[in-house]
Fold each of these.
Amino acid sequence: MSLHNSSSSSSSRWILRGVAFGVFLGVMSGQSYSHAQQAEALALPAGLGPRAVEPTILSAEVCARCHQTGQEMESPRLVLHDEFKTWKSFDRHSRAFTTLISDRSREIGARLYGDKVDVSTLKECLTCHGTDAEVPHKEPGFTINQDGVSCVVCHGTSHAWVVEHALGSYESWMTRSAQEKSNKFGMNDLREPLTKARLCLSCHVGDPGSGKVIPHAMYAAGHPPLATIDLTESSRLFPKHWLNADKTPYIRQVRPQIQRDGYHFVEGEFKSTRNVLVSALAQLDSEMTAFGSSRSKGTLVDFARYECASCHRELPAVSDAIWHQRVMGTSTQGRPNIPLWPNHLITLGFVGGQAGLRLAVEANIRTFVNLRKSPFADQGSQKVPVWSLDGESKTWLDGRSRRTYDRQDSVMIVKMICAIGDSESLDFRSARQLAWSIWSITTELEGDRTKDPQLLSLFVAFDTELALSLFIAPESDTEKQSISWIEAEAKFDATRIRARFVELRHRLDRQQ
């Protein structure tokens, strides 16, 4: 049933759901039901095979039937069963769609498209602020304004995994490998860091392939700028609706092969170290793909991909603290600058790797950096660079995602990150990324870093000067946080921040 021709009334919809939940309880009690009845129990669109991997939008209320009360089902403890309540009450993703009907969004829409266009219906907005309106199959009665970024947006729009994990054998589902759940049933493997990174970055950086792009015109109309994001730290601050693998009773009980293949858990691993390195390369890939694609049709690179401070800054050089005039002074006068910070992600992502791979990626990125000399060159005479990680680099990235890191690896990598922080070309966004990375890894190494007063004072300084929000509640106002990091960027003092990285390195050395 399509979104536009649904004739289900609100009352009939809830009756259907009541009946469906009754069927579901019958299944859980051991009574056998046909595939058709299973599909009805989850209110799936008519005509879909219950285990076909087809894109389908199901409302969060479908998931709420089991994931709201906090009461355990007849299964070992794998999930909390109150995920819906956490998402609905505390997670700003649940309010992503309502942002589109706010006064601010209406003003942005009016500047871009005129007063008669409703931005809450536009695909370019819904790709990140809601469910994809163009997915062919939807739950009967589902309306586009029902959910924001909901369960299926992150966990997978295939209804096959929803049916299988809810109505199939618990033991069979929980012992399947993560790869089988993904390939056969269409469930995104969010415990695997590369999969999770690419999913999050598709909105928080952009993904031209799926239409998730914020052009300069949107920023000029008033869309808040996208701040750099650290996926490891963001997950820590996220209103958690999941159990970490090492804290999950079921995962702790099963044999090591299921722990590894099903849940990416290895006893004693330092997963934050792995996640930091994987997300660095994934973010580099996302940033440069977005940059290259904005030029792929023979047009100038969209201004949104350049360094904002190239144009949005005071012209006089007030002091040496104006970092962008020193660090970016090698470009042609009067030309916007290519962001420098992805270069530091190369170094971070290839820590401990083969020098040849890093040099190959640096050569690839240099094509873009050279645009700083003539970003407005004639398109017919200048080759349009196309970004891509080559096969060997992708293999390295995939390997990073699967590798297990121990304490020695983590200590070595933290020291290397500190060394990267003492770089002549350190810019604001690079400094943020590096400070986040160190915070994440050292917290895992030593537990609560707030117990060390001297180290805590350093991180408080980083937090204040780089607007990292390490000590801010996750439900804090998004707009205020955006303003804080924009103000912090304007005041960024590279010399002072580099000195803090050196001091941090010395303190860590003394603790070994």
Amino acid sequence: MKKCKGLLQEFDEELWYAVIDKLIVHDSKHVTFVFKDGSESEWRK
């Protein structure tokens, strides 16, 4: 994978597939990102 300097300016599909295992949609205001290392990050609106 190519190296990135600084913040991403647009969606990077290669990076997404490299780090995300799955995305769990609980409802329209709550999702959980599950990373390949097993860690999780929740997003709530």
